[in-house]
Design goal:
With 222 residues, the chain is mainly beta. It has 2 helices and 14 strands; from the N terminus they run αβββββββββββαβββ. A hairpin with a 6-residue loop joins strand 1 and strand 2. The longest helix is centred in the C-terminal third of the chain and has 8 residues.
């Protein structure tokens, strides 16, 4: 995948009309001592392809160190053992996660840009298959996203609330022109997790020039 293809067009963070209640997440996936079923995807030196690595899972779901350069884009799973829990038909479900970070400064690729949003983490899922389509990729807003360097906290994103999600080109899942495609994607999730970006984009890559790490403590769908 190329960096231009994976860059996210920015849209304003949606303000939810109702407060989403936190649900209890599933037990930490691939818990301590087990083989990790998650991967960290980082842009390579050319910026035109990803390289994958297996995160540490001795505590929580996954932990990794950010590179000095702003290149870490995704922490996701597409492992077949999660079919029917984290993958597959997630219609009406809610994604809940807890996370923490260490390090004082996080930068994003292309910083600074005109949007001015800080480096952030947000819930992401895809429903890939066949040729590329913008509605195969969806990113959460509101309580499904948070700024890095805040120490951590919960993320909650209702898949039953399409207004909380936008696609590759920033179209809302609640837009009548994209609502059916959003519903189809939710019913056919093939990959899920978190993305890292900042400024005008959601997946352009994040780094920690003075050192910094990220831990996904829990991740569940219910």
């Amino acid at each position: 995948m190329s960096r231009p293809r994976m860059l996210r067009r920015a849209v304003p963070i949606a303000v939810l009309a109702t407060v989403l209640a936190l649900v209890v997440a599933l037990p930490a996936l691939a818990g301590p001592g087990g083989a990790s079923k998650w991967k960290v995807w980082t842009y390579n030196a050319s910026g035109r392809a990803f390289s994958g690595s297996v995160p540490d899972n001795s505590t929580g779901v996954a932990s990794f160190a950010f590179p000095a350069t702003p290149d870490t884009a995704l922490l996701v799973t597409d492992h077949g053992s999660y079919k029917g829990t984290l993958l597959g038909d997630l219609t009406g479900e809610t994604v809940s996660a807890t996370w923490s970070d260490t390090g004082g400064v996080f930068t994003y690729y292309g910083e600074p840009d005109v949007c001015g949003a800080p480096a952030s983490v947000r819930v992401f899922f895809s429903a890939t298959g066949g040729p590329f389509a913008e509605t195969q990729y969806w990113w959460a807003h509101g309580s499904g996203a948070a700024a890095l360097a805040s120490g951590g906290g919960p993320l909650t994103a209702s898949l039953g609330n399409p207004s909380q999600w936008s696609d590759f080109f920033g179209h809302s899942g609640a837009d009548p022109a994209y609502a059916a495609a959003y519903a189809d994607a939710v019913a056919n999730v093939t990959s899920i997790g978190l993305s890292f970006g900042g400024g005008c984009f959601f997946e352009n890559g994040v780094g920690a020039p003075a050192g910094g790490s990220f831990t996904l403590g829990s991740f569940g769908v219910s």
